[in-house]
Amino acid sequence: MWHDNETTTDYLNFGVVADACAKLLQQANGQPISIGVSGGWGVGKSSLVRMVASRLNVDADPDKNTYVVVTFNPWLYQDFEGARSALLQMVGDEVLRRAAADEGLVKKAKRLLQRINLLRVVQLGGEAAATIATGIPIGLIGRALAKFGLSDEQGEAGDDRAEKDEDWGVLKPAEPVSLPGEIQAFRDALEELLEELKITLVVFVDDLDRCLPQTAISTLESIRLLLFLKRSAFVVAADNEFIRGAVRVHFAGTGISDEVATNYFDKLIQVPLHVPRLGVNEAKAYLALLLLERAVADGQFVDGQFTRAVQAVAERLKTSWRGDAVTLEFLKGLINPQNAHLVELMELAEGLAPLLTSSSKVNANPRLMKRFLNTVFLRSALAKPQGIELDLKALAKWHLLERCDEALANALAGRVTSATEGRVDAIRLAEQATREGGALPEPFKDEFFHREWLGLAPALGEMDLRPLLHLSRDSAMRDFGDDSLTTEGRALRDALMVATSANEPLTQAIRAAGMSQADAVMAKVWQLKSPKRNWRQTEDVVPLLEISKIFPDLGAKAAALLAQAPIKEVGPGLVPLLYEQTWARPVLDQWHASGDASRPVKQAIEQARKGAR
C-alpha cells in the first residue's frame, strides 16, 4: 500500500519548482521574504515544501549563514492551544536550542521566551488583561503573569528574584506594560539573536487549509507578528480559495468583497507559487512509478532499476514541452519487456492516466490517484482468500467507473442481478459499439469518458461481474438477488439462452426442471434475452412456446410476458406459431385491434384465424 504522507521522493518533476523556490530563499541574503505555495487538497504542497527544505543548506557556509527550518502545522494545535501561541513558542524553543552552546546567547534566548510567554498569556484576557493594563497583579492569573516580568534586573538576577512575591519585574504596581512596546521588543530581540547566531529562520506553515477558519486566521496573524524580520522567511502552503473563504468567515457581516479577501493574503505573501497542474504525461508517469515502487516491494523489480526509472521519467517530463510524451513504449523501456506482470502494470498506467486526468472527480490529483491504487490493490488482496481470481486491470477498470461515474456503476451493478452468470449484455453491446464506432446503448451516454472506459482492457461484457461487485462492497451494498434455481433450473436457463427452435434436449431439460423451476426460468430468460429480441424471428418466443407446451398451466404467465411486446416492432413471422397456442390468441386479438400493429401483422392474424376454423 502507498502511504498518504508528504515525501521528498519526486515522481512529478516538482524538483524543478523546489529548486526555484530554494533559490529565491537563498538569494534573499538575509532580507525577509514570504512565499505562498498554493494548490488544492492533495496536489502535493507538503511534498513540495519538504523538497525545498532538503535543498536549502546545500553549499551553505556555517560561518555566514545556516538555514534553520521549522515546520509548523496549525492543524495539530486546533482545539488544544491557540495556533498563534504555538507558533511563537515553537520559534522560541528552536532559537533557545540553537543558542545552547553560548552562555550569553542562552540568556538572551531565555529572555525572548519570557516575552513570548507574556504575549501568550495576554491572549487569556480577563485577569491577565487587567494586570497588563494596570501593572497590578490581579487574581491567580495576574500573579502567574507577574512571574514573566521582563525588567533587566530580573533577567540578570535569575529565577530567585522572580520568585519573590514583592518583586514584580516590569509589572510593578502602577507601572503598566505597553503591549505594543513588548511586541516591538520581542521582534527586536528575535532579530538580534538570529543575527548573532548567523542563522536564517525558515518557517514552513503546512496544512493551513485543513484548519477551521478561526485557526487559519490566527496563524496568519502570528505570521504577521514574525514577518519582515531580517533573517526570517516564511513558506505558507495553503489553498488560496480556502484562505479567501476563511477571511470571509472571520469578517462575516462586514460586507467584505472578494477583492479584499484576496488582498488580505496578498499582503502577507510576497511571492505566490502555484503547485504545477498535472497533465496526462505527469499522471501516467506518476502511476507508472507508483506501480513500479510496489513491484520493488514485492521483489518483482530491482531497486537499482527503479532508481534509473525515476531518473528517466524526470528527464522525460522536463522535455515534455517539446513533445517528448510518456508513451507506452517509453514505459516499457523502463522495465524488462519479457516480464509479463510488469508489462501489465505499465499498460494499466497507460490506460488509467487519461481518464483519471479528464475526470472532474479525480483531476489527476496525486493523493486521489494514490488512494485509487490503494483500493484496487486492497481488493486484489481480498480476492485470493475468498477463492476469487481476477485480473488486476479488471479490478482497476471497475473501480475507475465507481470513482468517476457512480451513477453508471450503480446502474450496471443493478443489472447483474438478472444477468446470466453475472454477464451484463449492455456492457457487451456497448463495447462492441465502441470498437465499431456505433451508438452506445442505455445506460451509456455518448461522451468521452464512457467510450474511453469501454475501450479499456479487459472487456467486461463477457465477464462475470459478480466477483467484482462482491469485492466492491466497501463502496456500496451489493445484492445479487435470491438465486432460487436448482441445478436443473440453471441447466434449463442455459439451454433456453441458446435455443433457436424446439429440440429434444430442450424438451428433456424442461421436464427435468419441473413446473416450479420452469416458471422461474421462463421469466428470467425472457428478461435476459430482451436486448437481443427484435420481435421478428420465431426464436424470440421459444422460451414461452416450449415451456407452455410441457406445462400448459404456465400459459397464463407466458401470455402476460408476450403482452409486453412493443406492438409497432412485431413482425408477421411470429403470428403462425403463436396462434397455435390457445394462451397466445387473446394477445394476438389485442394486436389486431391495436392501431400500432402493422398491416402485415394484422393480415397474418386474419389468415391464422381462417386456418384455425
Automatic annotation (TrEMBL):
Domain of life: Bacteria
KAP NTPase domain ranges (all copies): 16-379
Name of the protein described by the UniProt record: NTPase KAP
Pfam families, per database record: KAP_NTPase (PF07693)
Gene3D superfamilies with a match to the protein in the record: P-loop containing nucleotide triphosphate hydrolases (3.40.50.300)
Signal peptide (residue range): none
